[in-house]
Amino acid sequence: MSSASSRRAILFATIAAAAALAAIAVANRRPAPAALAAAGPIAAPLTPITAAVPPPPPLHDPRDLWVCADPNNMPFSNAKGQGFENRIAKLVADDLGRHLRYFWEPQRRGFVRTTLKAGNCDVVIGVPSAYGPVEATRPYYQSTYVFVSRRGLGLRSFDDPRLSALLIGIQIVGEDYENPPPAQALASRHLSDNVRGFTVYGDYSRAAPQRTVIDAVAAGRIDTAIVWGPLAGYFASRSRVPLDITPVTPSVDRSGLPFAFEISMGVRPGAIAFRAQLDDLIERREPEIQSILRHYGVPLVEGAGQAAS
Amino acid sequence: MYGGRGHRVFSTVLVLACVVLPACSGKTSGTGARSGASAIVPGALPNIRLVADVSRGEWRIPAGDDGNLRYSALDTINTSNAKDLHVVTTFSTGIPNGHEGQPLVFNNTMYVVTPYPNNLIAVDLTNPNGPLKFIYEPHTDPRSVGIACCDVVNRGAAYADGKIIYNLLDAHTVAVDAETGKEVWRARVGDINVGETVTGAPIVVKDKVLVGNSGGELGVRGYVAALDVKSGRELWRAFNTGPDADVKIGPGFHAFYQKDQGKDLGVTSWPSEQWKLGGSTVWGWISYDPETNLIYYGTGNPGVWNPDLRPGDNKWSCSIIARDADSGEAKWAYQVTAHDAWDYDEIMENMLVDMDYGGRMRKLLIHPGRTGFVYVLDRETGELLSAETFEPTNWAMSYDLKTGKPAEDPTKRTRYGVVTQGICPSSTGAKDVIPSAFSPRTGLVYIPAHNTCMDYEGTEANYIAGTPYLGASVKMYVGPGGYQGELVAWDPVRARKMWSVKEDKFPVYSGVLATAGDVVFYGTMDGWFKAIDARTGTELWKFHTSSGIVGNPITYTGPDGKQYVAIYSGIGGWMGAVAFPSISIDDPEAALGVVGAMKDIKKYTAPGSTVYVFGL
Hints:
The structure holds two protein chains of two kinds.
Chain A: H1 4-9, H2 11-27, H3 34-37, E1 64-69, E2 72-73, E3 77-78, H4 84-96, E4 99-104, H5 111-114, E5 123-128, E6 135-136, E7 141-150, E8 168-172, H6 181-188, E9 195-199, H7 212-218, E10 224-228, H8 229-237, E11 243-247, E12 260-267, H9 272-284, H10 286-295
Helix pairs in contact in A: 4-10
Chain B: H1 7-18, H2 22-25, E1 48-50, E2 71-72, E3 86-92, E4 104-106, E5 109-113, E6 120-124, E7 134-136, H3 144-147, E8 158-160, E9 163-168, E10 172-177, E11 183-188, E12 203-205, E13 208-212, E14 223-228, E15 234-239, H4 244-247, H5 265-268, E16 286-289, E17 294-298, E18 319-324, E19 330-335, E20 351-357, E21 360-368, E22 373-378, E23 384-389, E24 396-400, E25 405-408, E26 420-423, E27 437-439, E28 444-450, E29 452-457, E30 461-464, E31 467-470, E32 473-478, E33 485-491, E34 496-503, E35 512-515, E36 519-523, E37 528-533, E38 539-544, E39 554-557, E40 563-569, H6 573-576, H7 595-598, E41 610-615
Parallel strand pairs in B: 2-35
Antiparallel strand pairs in B: 1-20, 3-41, 4-5, 5-6, 6-7, 8-9, 9-10, 10-11, 12-13, 13-14, 14-15, 16-17, 17-18, 18-19, 20-21, 21-22, 22-23, 24-25, 26-29, 27-28, 28-33, 29-32, 30-31, 33-34, 35-36, 36-37, 37-38, 39-40, 40-41
């Protein structure tokens, strides 16, 4: 476990994060469904929660565009609007002539269910195009898992014989049976002993929880990290130690395991008209969207259509 | 609460009468129904000896007794009159989420811990029409809601030292003055920022509060921690993965089987350093044997990878562990399944009882497993005495009692890129955390069971925190025989099912209560609360409550000296969450694939938040 002193060390970060989340709680506040107000006498003073409550009605004010996003997940999004998904959300809202509003929620298991599908927003800016629970727009970029290494190592393949002598950082996700593809590729090559795991959630009390794995490469605690391109591109370009990022090659492993994924915006299932509106927007505003992605160092790969299905 | 006008006068008289009637005052020493010596239960079979006194007039600790038997010596409600049971009162907790766990009753007060936000509601049973005794609101951190894996449940409180002690979803333990509702202390036992939550119920042994964590899906590391009952200060912490020093394995540790022997197995049975994210959490029940001074608990699944990435046994995941209650030092451990590939957490209850086994009295630990097997162990040594299936099971056909290992069917292991069909039981297990009961009068264990199988395929695109990855398609469905649930009456000595009550529509996902009146109580996910004959399974009575039942029944003596039975009615939990409006039965991702087995539940029930009390 963390020692008491190391916990104290992150106290300030925790306080800062807590303050941000308190602001989020206020920002997310919306009228409670009428049914809750009619609960019994014991219920009255208690705080209702949303998990078992019918979804609130969609927001009907046509002047607003509600976006569900993580308030602490750079480089994708944060509550200060600094992520590339924040920038794309702004572009979308402006294009549609709507006022940008956020529903903040950490992107954990059940995110889409408790945000988009619960009627708390109109759109999630970044989801895999093949992600079933949403109505996905046309892809607006394709990126790939990449090797992040200190300059000169030049790793790009899981079959590189040097891997067996290296410490390899990967991120893990929090659901039973489920893995980012590098985990599987390494396991199938009997490299599990070389793996160092970092949770994709990181320590949420810190700003940019996902950067820990990149910092570990820069600090030499691991030799390479194999992570999703957008976070690698962003943090590697801001590292004081020069880092190289190279796409996993080939983009489909010998077992059929894909490393490149197309990314779309996600709207509620059945919101066909809105999806078509966004499809059109993505086509018209492609240069600006690409410009935002390049500005954030997102490794872009060509050949959309090879993503996991 | 107990009847209408005029009863209050009688109540006062009866309260006085109770002073000289041990049966209704429940007078026991220390932290609950605990004597240290063998308890006397009228009508108990001669070959059965209890390790701790059972619940009598009160219900002070989560399982009612340290041995986790969920047996009450009250016998006013019996097989002849159970048909006359009726609702005495109901009240709402105000929180429409899964009501696992059970109330406590102590000093004529009922204490109810709600699901998140984990309020503590105290109802004065002598003044039922008056105001609540108190509501304590801990203001649990709302961020914990998004971290909890499977609804925002709480499995109850324990009474000790004048305090009601329970865990909050945000990984704190609180102690609340039982009379005033004022918080006495609050201890942080985990960190929600790294994915830890706490949903289990604590127990109190002497001066220590014992708690375990949840969050094995998120790469946390499982532990049991001991807190000082007076202050909440942490006294020791024993991890379930990592070096022996962290696991508190020392010279006093003697695993019975060779497979569980060796140095630093919590490190060496993993690829290097993966034990740091090794799960093996403790979100179920903890039992205590005052004679051996050992606590017993089971551990959850190994975190967080799928099995391909963690070659090795992954100790001490999916294990039963015995520890010294004072020091936390491990006495023995038995890993039920090595290298889990099915999510078979073994956090289920360990029921402690001495029985005539093979011609001599043995100290038994009975563990109805998620794997589909009932394990009977010698709780002094960790020797496996029997392991037989209580529901359709095919991941393994049997256990070798000489090695302690299961005879696995390798074709039923899940592997990436391989479609594995017809795995029984499914990841929900043949039972989950919902606890069984044991009656010393019948010698039977009453197991709330599921019959669910699954197909596994790892292919779907998914994402979290902006990162795409490959998910798994897990489809669950009703197992062989076509019934979903079953209340199984199991003879732990003969290692076989004596009879059962089938519940066709849904798993039995409520706890069980056995009483000296030879009545067994349990609930169903479509809202029925039932009383059956403990010897035959014959249904004696049932009542349809307002929501599905995933809580555990208790019984107690009211201020009027009469016996009452209480149960929560509020669907939820992992399987029950499918009843929530926010979970679509068309969403294959929802509730980790249980939707396939539970898709009809919305036709039968909806969220609730009611405490029911029944009497004659």
